[in-house]
Amino acid sequence: MKPLRHRELLLSLKASTIEACFSVPMLNLTIPSFPFVITFAVSVLGWGSTAVGLMAALPHLCNVAQPALATWLRRNMALHPIMVLTFIFTALPWGFVSILPFLPESARHWVFALILGTATLANSLGAVSWSAAIGELVPTRVSAKFFSRRNLAFGFWTLLTVSIASQIAERGTTPLVTYGWIFAAAGLARLLGLLFLWRMRFPESVMRPQAEPPPWGELLAPLRDANFMKLAAFIGLWGLLLNLSQPFQPMFLLQAVGRPVGDIGWLTALAGVGGLLTLPAWGKLCDRFGVKPVLYVCSMAWAIVGLACWTTAGNRWWWHLIGTYFFIGGTTAGFQLCQFSLMLKLTPANRAPYVAVFLAVTSALTALGPILGGGLLRLLPDHLGALLGQEIRDFHILFGLSMLGCLLVVHLLDFVREEEAHPPETVWRTMRSMRAFNPVLIAQSATQMILTPVGLIALARQSVRTLRKQARQIGDVGEDLVESTTQVLRPSRKDPPEG
User: What is the pTM of this model?
Assistant: First the structure.
């Protein structure tokens, strides 16, 4: 297989980052399990806990259905056209939200559900094809470095987009119309990202259909890989227990705490700031100690802080959630980076079936979380008494069960094998001396970034320079890729001459 030329490789890595700066903010506004869509469903459409639970489970249910659909598509098409089609069908349905004000109230729910289902299934199929295609470009030895820089680049735009969209939604005079325009703009951004996907150059294995269609039996290969399935079991059970409560956190803030939509937007944005400030450090830790121990640290810290803060939040004390969102945003960024990097690290050359099975298994478990959470909220009494003047709600029981379960399931990572992984204790010790995890410096950086005019101006300037800076940094990664490829392809002097 002919390798990509140096310039083609660099341009593809840069275009991938620019594409993400359009696509990922759009996904953060339209994924059914994310706060923005949930606040729309609760505050505008009036959906209850059962409907919210089913909606939050929808992406995971689609991931369960996608292995068979993805394999069928790959038997007839190459990965690249599959990516293009899924980009289009992820984006276009959101333009139809603008017709909801003209429909009878009873029809709005079914039309919105159809939009959610179509776009979410397309996004699930696109995630498999994109992961397999990008895995052909980025070797596992530099994946943590590349994806940390890529995530940092699009993280700022996600933060800015979600913040602005939340404030517009809160101030709109006609919420249904306002949300319709926001969703339509999000779909347009996804289509703009498609333009940069077109500019990427992939290996022939991505651009052309396979000479022989992939057999259906290839989906069984990941199931026989015990180490890979142990990772899938951990991610799936973690997702189940986390999503037992996480989709209902915006609902809790709206109904129990009485916060407006704009406040939820700012809190979500604050989580994005936490991810931006810590993401480079997570990438460095992965490169130094391995991915598994960093994933262990992120999971443990997430569960402990979540248990302490969400079970004590309520109508009287809720200000500590500002720090909670910031902290959880940082651990979420690290968790997502580690999850994706470790999955790619444990997969062989034929990644597509492994990615498909990984998403299906983890999502089958994760989908149960919001469904069970919605059922528990229906069964539990709304009010369970009071403690120190603060009301105890059914949400608090749900939050406690969720975080305690996450604490227990973290230990499943002990059974996952990663070569040359260090003990988690070494990660803890190193984090204490890193600037990115110094609480005083983090608080100072976050305060300057979001609360002072100087910080906002600096943030605006940084946004203009972000893509250029990341392009240079990703160029360095591209140099490493080209150098390693050259070393592999260059014949050794010790080898006897052919012929």
Answer: 0.70
